[in-house]
Amino acid sequence: MAAQAEGTTHLAAAAGLPQLELRQAFARGEMSMATTLAIMKVIDLHLPGQAH
Questions:
Q1: Is the pLDDT reported for residue 12 higher than 60?
Q2: CB neighbour burial string for 3-39, b if at least 16 within 10 angstroms, e if fewer
Q3: Dihedral angle over CA of 34, 1, 23, 41, nearest 10
Q4: Is the pLDDT of residue 52 over 60?
Q5: Number of structural domains, the chain?
Q6: Is residue 40 part of a domain?
Q7: pTM to 2 decimal places
Q8: DSSP letter string over 5-51?
Q9: CA distance 26 to 47
């Protein structure tokens, strides 16, 4: 489950989100627009120019 995954800690840090907030969003199965955009920025920074 993503809410308990070790990588969630790293994703939260990279996205500048509180870890608990991200874990709760994963557990609920829904995220706010701000959370979604923060994660998308991390993906774009780490995978520039790649189709994702």
A1: yes
A2: eeeeebeebbeebebeeeebbebbeeeebeeebeebb
A3: -30
A4: no
A5: 1
A6: yes
A7: 0.76
A8: -THHHHHHHHHT--HHHHHHHHHHT---HHHHHHHHHHHHHHSTTS-
A9: 22
Contact 16, 38 (CB under 8 A): yes
pLDDT at 51: 60
pLDDT of residue 28: 94
Section 38-49 average pLDDT: 87
Asked if residues 8 and 23 have their Cβ atoms less than 8 Å apart, the reply is yes
The average confidence (pLDDT) of the chain is 89
Residue-level length of the chain = 52
Q: Tell me the residue range of the domain where 34 lies.
A: 2-46
